[in-house]
Amino acid sequence: MAVAVEPRARERSENFPVALRVLPARYREPLHAAYALARRIDDVGDDPSRSPMTRLDDLDALEASLRSRGAGPALPLDPFLDLIAANRCDQTLTRMATYDDLLAYCRLSANPIGRVVLAVFGVDRPDAAALSDDVCTALQILEHCQDVAEDLRDRDRVYLPAEDLTRYGVDEPDLRAVTTSRELRRLVAAEVDRAVLLLDSGGPLVRLLTGWARVAVAGYVAGGRATADALRRCDFDVLAPDAARRQPRRRDVVRHATRLLVVRR
After folding, report:
1. pLDDT tens digits along 64-100
2. Which of 67, 123, 142, 205 gives the lowest tally of CB atoms within 10 Å of its CB?
3. β strands within 5-68, DSSP E
4. At 95, is the secondary structure helix, strand, or coil?
5. Phi, psi of 158 (to 5 degrees)
6. Which of 217, 11, 212 is nearest to 134 (CA)?
């Protein structure tokens, strides 16, 4: 299976961080390529026209192609193999029993992206990688909160942990409802708070970095904070048909990024 490159218009529709668009080409191009490859892997794993068994075969073929051809100039291979592993999980694991299960899933589905970003900027430090993992896990959890209805409707997946659904008195039919119940809002609020704590934990990565790497990572962290702002602003109404209400505002991303970048070391 050939590794295709997604159009950059797709990046705009997926809230590709504003900061990345101002980076020099030597960083911007490999990051665009990394994003395109990650989207390609997800598209193979999510293809609604193919059965889970067929998608598993497609993922095997994609992995074989990557192993033989590489991920691309300046891109490490292992993180993309982890993304393929996450998509394999998606074919059989459609519910998360515990928050720890969700974190384990994010280690395959989200954290590899941060590792790629660090590699593109030539950052090879265990402390930076650990902080990046917290940021990426937070971003993934926030995305799951935004997409509660879409994940269940289109993919039959529930990423909100079952133990938390029980704790807040939420049943799966509540996730299919037309309106967002008070219980579901409280549950999503708790998951957003968890994600923000992870952003706080990983935020020092911005101060650890220098130059364009610092700008790029500040953009990612700021995007997460702006997403949390959006979810709070709509009172965690994650089932509303107007998904735009749950999307971060560009001015909020810029505001958070500015604050991150002006903090003294």
Report:
1. 999 999 999 989 999 999 999 999 999 999 999 999 9
2. 67
3. none
4. strand
5. -125, 110
6. 217
Domains of the chain and CATH, by start: 22-91 (no CATH), 93-265 (1.10.600.10)
Instruction: Decide if pLDDT at 182 tops 60.
Output: yes
User: HSE of 168 in the Cβ direction (CA atoms, 13 Å)?
Assistant: 20
Measured distance CA(232)–CA(123) in Å, rounded: 34
In angstroms, the Cα distances linking 180 to 99, 145, 184 are 22, 12, 6
Residue 91: phi and psi, rounded to 5, are: -75, -25
**For residue 137, what are its two tokens?**
């896990």
257 C-beta neighbours (distance < 10 Å), count: 24
Instruction: Collect all residues with Cβ–Cβ distance below 8 Å to 68 and sequence separation of at least 6.
Output: none
d(CA 125, CA 131): 10
- For the cut 80, the answer to whether the pLDDT of residue 9 exceeds it is no
Nearest-angstrom CA–CA distance, 259 and 122: 25
> pLDDT tens digits, residue range 96-112?
999 999 999 999 999 99
- C-alpha distances out from residue 48 to 37, 110, 143, 178, Å: 19, 22, 20, 23
| pLDDT value for 243 | 87
- The two counts, helices (H) then strands (E), for the chain are 14, 0
For residue 8, is pLDDT > 70? no
The one-letter code for the residue type at 229 is D
